[in-house]
UniProtKB/TrEMBL annotation:
Species the sequence originates in: Fluviicola taffensis (strain DSM 16823 / NCIMB 13979 / RW262)
Coiled-coil intervals: none
Keyword Nucleotidyltransferase: no
UniProt domain Ferrous iron transporter FeoA-like: residue ranges: 2-72
GO molecular-function terms, A-Z: transition metal ion binding
Keyword annotations: Iron
InterPro entries (alphabetical): Fe-transptr_FeoA-like, FeoA, FeoA_core_dom, Transcriptional_repressor_C
KW Transcription (keyword) present: no
SMART domains, sorted: FeoA
Classification of source organism: Bacteria, Pseudomonadati, Bacteroidota, Flavobacteriia, Flavobacteriales
Pfam families: FeoA
Stated name of the protein: FeoA family protein
């Protein structure tokens, strides 16, 4: 299964699900629910953190958090 942490910059993908964790409710509240299209728009020089575009707003997250989000 591919995760959001593995998606290259400027590539769009769809969220398939979120791994069960303490962060799952918070990630869902931020709009990362199954079927939602997201695009990686920034990666820091060492890869962490990343920024993703979700319906016109930018969300910054750690790679460890992005690794919880399963994508196409």
């Amino acid at each position: 299964m591919k995760t959001l942490a593995q998606i290259p910059m400027h590539q769009k993908t769809k969220v398939l699900g979120i791994v069960e964790s303490e962060l799952k409710p918070k990630l869902l509240e931020m709009g990362l629910y199954p079927g939602k299209e997201v695009e990686v728009i920034f990666k820091a020089p060492f890869g962490d953190p990343i920024a993703v575009d979700i319906s016109g707003y930018t969300l910054s997250m750690r790679l460890s958090e992005a690794a919880l989000i399963e994508v196409e």
